[in-house]
Structures are given as C-alpha cells and as structure tokens.
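Run log, item B.
One chain of 272 residues. Sequence copied directly from the ordering sheet:
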Amino acid sequence: MEVSTKTVMAIKSYQNQAGVLVKNYLLADPFIPYTSIIGGIILCKMVYDLTQLISSFYIKTYAGLTKIQRIEWNSRGISSIHAIFITALSLHFVFWSDLFSDQPHAGLVTFRSSPLSVFGLGVSVGYFCADLGMLLWLYPSLGGMEYVFHHSLSGIAVAYSMFSGEGQLYTYMILISEITTPEINMRWYLDTAGMKRSSAYLINGIVIFLSWLAARILLFGYMFYHVYLHYDQVSCNSLKICTYHLHLILLTVYFHCLEKLIYTSDHADIVL
C-alpha cells in the first residue's frame, strides 16, 4: 500500500521536531549531566533485562539458580557492560584524545572538559546509582558494607568531577581500572556454572592477574606520577577546590584497592 505524500511529510516533520528537541534540550550542555545520568540508569535496566532474557535461553544452569543468584547474575551483566563502555572511553581520553594533552594554549589540564567527557561520566554515575540501589535493596545479599562504601565514594567522586568539570583526567585514569571487572564477573559466572576446573577458568584467572597488574599497579603509578608533574596546577590557593577533588579521588583509589584486596583474600584461588 502506497504511503501518501501528506503522511510522509508528517513523519518528516515529527522527525525534525524530535531532532530539535534532542539537540536543544537533551544534548544541550546544561542538560547533559542530568540526561546522561538518567540515560545510564535506563541502560542499566535494559542490560539487566537483556541479560536475563539471553541467559534464560542459552545458559542451561541459569534456570537452576536461586532467586538471589539470578539477580546477581543479571547485575554482573550490567557491571560488565558498564566496565567495557567506560574503559574504552577512558582509554580514549587519557591516551588518544587531545583534550588532556600537554598543550600550553589549552589551559590547565585539571580544568578541561568536553560534552563527551561529561556525558561519559554521567552514564557512569547512573550506573553507580543503579547498582548502589540494588546493593541497598537486597543488602547484604549482593555485597557487604565495603561494596556500599566503594560505590558511594566512587559515585560522589565521579559526580563531582562531572558537575564541576574539575579533575576529569584523573577520574578517567581511575575508571580505566574497570577493565578488570568483566574478568572478575566471568570468574563468578564460571564458578556458579560449575566450571571451576575448566581450562577457561584457568585462562580467565591469568587474564585477571595481568589486567590487575596493568590497571591497578602500573596505571595508578602513572597517575601519581602525572599528579606530581602537574601538582603546581592544583596546589595554589585560587585552585584549592580542585585539590579537594584530588584528595577525594585519592580516597576513592584507597577504598577501590581495599575492596579488591578483600575480594582477593576471600578468593585466593583465582589462578589456581
């Protein structure tokens, strides 16, 4: 059946109006933090449902899990997708983008930001809010108080950097450490599926060790070295608020490492 010219014009009109709405409101600079947070929460819900749907059809052991195990299974799908997204974006900004390069005319590196960098942090804040909500709602089934502290502190640090535009480079440096999350989640999946003695479990353990070495030790060392080289940009009185944010970031690093240390002590057989 042919579509009338009037109908086609009406559809194009609606498309143009939707484009104007997205450009002038949803993606306008003042609204990006809020729309990205809401978008991050909505994406978490979508990934949760997709993980549940795919696992129900293709993972035989999924049906035999308890209710709490299925919830944790689905929530780990969320954290894995978030980790892949934020790690890729962080690597782009830290190593390949000109936004945080050492260009004298670009201004202080601690105060640089862009709509994309703000959007990425907003999606991450949305994830932390959604995951923290699940932790508190089902506490302590999905994690103890150390996870609550970690998510709360991480969410606050990322949100401060997003709204203030300060220290976004160092925030993205820390977020690169999320690269270890998919491997840790895969270990839990294999363990829950009864594949602890499989070769995949061993290979995954080796990948965890190597990614931890790169993301938790070498990267943090590089970050502290970068802070040392640019400390003059955050130490003067006029920029003291940025120093406060830097301290918040360093505190987040401390709790991040503490959480992983607790996890490692409880799961010392990661590569055994």
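Observations after the first pass:
- The mean pLDDT is 81.
- The two ends are 65 Å apart (CA to CA).
Flagged for discussion on Thursday.
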